[in-house]
Give the backbone structure.
Amino acid sequence: MMTATIEAGKLALSFLPNVEVVTLLCAIYGYVFGPIGLISVSLFVLIETFIYGVHTWVIAYIIHWNLICLVFILIRKKITNRFLITGIALIFVSLFGVLTSMIDTLILNYNSETFWHEFSVLYMRGIWFYVTEIVCNLILFPICFPPLAKVLTKFKNKYFGTKKEDKEIETNQKL
């Protein structure tokens, strides 16, 4: 179900360039469901590859989405403040453009003498898409992350049992 919601969210917003919920869903699934969230994110990348074929973006997707999920798995017991969570997400959203431009430059246009020039041209070409993605997540995370964390934690506790850290997430007022 987690993989399906990530894919459905991506497809539902695909007509709007870089307006996305994938970052939010990858983060929330890692935060609430831990390693199971990581499996769902990996399956999302696999499904995307089946739909769109293999190209350099697959490498970026494997690294980026799994890293977001992994980071949120690691911070779930330590960080509950919605603005700190939003800041962490925005750092990773900002790095997505760097990662994709770096991979494309390395694989498609690699020339050691002109690498940084080629990288900067490629990065600047997509800057408005990256800005859109950052603004989208700047709005989504502080509004949607706290209620999603609470609802999904209650769901997880109801069907999979309650753990100590889940009670902290569920009752924490900072989130």
Notes: The two ends are 24 Å apart (CA to CA). The chain is about 80% helix and 0% strand.
